[in-house]
Design a protein that fits this description.
The chain starts with a strand and ends with a strand. With 429 residues, the chain is α/β, with parallel strands linked by helices. Helices cover 20% and strands 21% of the residues. The chain has a six-stranded mixed sheet, with helices on both faces. A five-stranded mixed sheet has the order 3-1-8-5-6, with no helix packed on it. Strands 15-16-17-18 form a four-stranded mixed sheet. A hairpin with a 6-residue loop joins strand 10 and strand 11.
Length: 429
Amino acid sequence: MFADRAKILIRSGKGGDGHVSFRRELYVANGGPDGGDGGRGGNVIFEVDEGLNTLYEYRHKRKYSAKDGQEGGKRRCHGADGEDIVLKVPEGTVIFDNASGKVIADMSGENRRQIILKGGRGGKGNMHYATATMQVPKYAQPGAPAQELEVRLELKVIADVGLVGFPNVGKSTFLSRVTNARPKIANYHFTTLNPNLGVVDMDGGGFVIADIPGLIEGASEGIGLGHQFLRHIERTRVMIHIVDAASTEGRDPIADIYAINKELEAYNPEIAKRPQIIAANKIDAIYSGDEDPVEKIRGEFEPQGIPVYPISAVSGQGIKELLYAVKKLLNEIPQEKIIFEQEFFPEDMLVTENLPYTVSKSDEDENTYIIEGPKIEKMLGYTNLDSEKGFQFFQRFLKETGILSELEALGIQEGDTVRMYGFEFDYYK
């Protein structure tokens, strides 16, 4: 069974709690705190597996969880980190937040492995809280909670060229003739259920071509299996629009082309703007009559800048000319792959709680400002400021929580220092 869509629940591991304990040794009446830190919770990681081409296994299991971190121990023992969970997906899988529909990750191109949910930070043991005035702290920091998220996985076929057209116009026959693909071919009126991929070998380099399952009118509105099919066109750079020029089933090829293009426009206007070549198929079944149907199609669409090539997928007539035209068009189009940019950042969920914080001027240095409080400490515990994405999130956090506005209200100037829990930054607009 081919499966190109799945909905699953993923959960990272909870951070292990910090431990509360005190040294107990012979001749040491009041040993100091020695409670160790908790371990980090496991991450949820998605990874591309070249051997997979469907999301079938995610149809049977709905919940996937990483392991929790272990609690810290006595004698400053650090709790073990929770084991990560790695979910294997085929290349081309796009991961969406199911609630908002926003993109979390696109597992294609150079992105072969990505942490989607980070495990909770381990809590600090009571050995960290001893001070001159509090020498026997009887508390430790709890581990940070796990993250949980419902995500939607969609496999969007990666191909240079997509074949579109109504069912039974000869797309599967065409693909089997020009590539190494072996699709099931039959005279049916519903549609192919699987997007079939094949490689066209040509002098000077080939290209990947996909038989996008047949469309029907109303597909863009989800009628039939419309959305499931249309998503596979999103990555293609060129489309070959195959029509039954001989009208073997009494259909009007010109009306069919307009109907399919209307569905593409309704689903995604950007897709409808991509270059098209019309393959007027089944010319072996055209009988001499008053009017040549291929010339009629040419007269309608070539003035619109859409070239028309008469072919016979059965006999192979005209196919060589069509493929060279496609290759020429691909060479004229930029090579960069279509990648879906990240829109949803799961780490943003970690600081949504209404926790307190304070922004103040330092008593020791008028050019230094101090930000502290549980909200800040929690954000820093989840954010890797050494990474570009982590620092971008940190900047958004300062702006969206109103901290930047509060700093400006206190009179902060460019070059002043901002300090928070051991981190220092120079302020610049």
